[in-house]
Each structure stands twice: as C-alpha cells, then as structure tokens.
Amino acid sequence: MKGLYILIGCIGMIFLVLLLSGCYLLIKYPYLLNPKEMTKAIVLTDKKEYSPGDLLKVKIQNKENQKICFSSCYPYYIQKKSGNWQNYIYEDCDKEDLVESCIEPKSVKSFELTVPVLKKGENRLSILACIGCNVKEKFKGQENFFSNDFTIK
Hints:
By secondary structure, the chain is of the alpha+beta class. It is built from one helix and eleven strands, in the order H-E-E-E-E-E-E-E-E-E-E-E. Strands 2, 4, 5, 6, 7, 9, 10 and 11 form an eight-stranded mixed beta sheet that branches. It has two domains: 1-37; 39-152, Sandwich (Immunoglobulin-like), CATH 2.60.40. The termini are far apart.
C-alpha cells in the first residue's frame, strides 16, 4: 500500500511539473494559444516601456525556410494604437528602395534604434519584408511582421 502512495505521489509531481511548464510557455509565448498568430518571423523588443531617447533593442527570429529581407528606405515603422494601429508619418525616401539586409533561414538578427519623440501610449514596430529576395534587388514588400506592444511614457 505504501508503494501505491509513492507511485501516486510521483505521478502527481510529474503532472504538476508538466502543468507549470505549460503555463510558463503560454506566458512567454502567448501566440501559442492562437494558431492564427503563428508567423514566419517573431519580432521582440527588449523592454515593455520606453521614453524618448531610450535605446530600443529588437530581435527578429526567422522561422521560415527562406531568407527574410528588409527595405533600405524603411526597414521598420513605428505604429501608435488609437483604436486601430496607425503608422506615424514618415518623410518620403529620396533614394531607390532596395533590399538592404536579410536574415537567413532559422536565424536571429538584432538591431537597435533610438526611440524618437512620440505620443505617450501603446506602440509597436511594423516590419515590412520580402521573402526569398536578394540584397540589392528592388524591394517589394510581401509580408508585415509586428513586434510585441510597448508603452511610450
């Protein structure tokens, strides 16, 4: 009988560890709850809150089997949430929009930007990319990837 209690206790501990591991994964990767949010790339900022002038560090993970490439004019847009997501107004690019850099398949690339003076509130990065294109080709955006939300204080 004592052996049965030990067996039930061990099974309970294994179940608890699996349950807690699953909760951790869902908190860390909430898109796992919604398959529609599965994406070819994951874009994450290093913090949830920034002030103008702060350094914002971004990691982009390419989950594709092809390279993902970015524009020489606007590799990213900052968007503000006001009802729906809207890009801040950018000046026109005065050069030809070419593919400037790429992330190889199943790789991660990081970059940093200085947070400009923005309205306080909820923001995110919008990154327009082309899939399988090559550096120096004319950029033709095919897919938008979005970062986690962050707050400008």
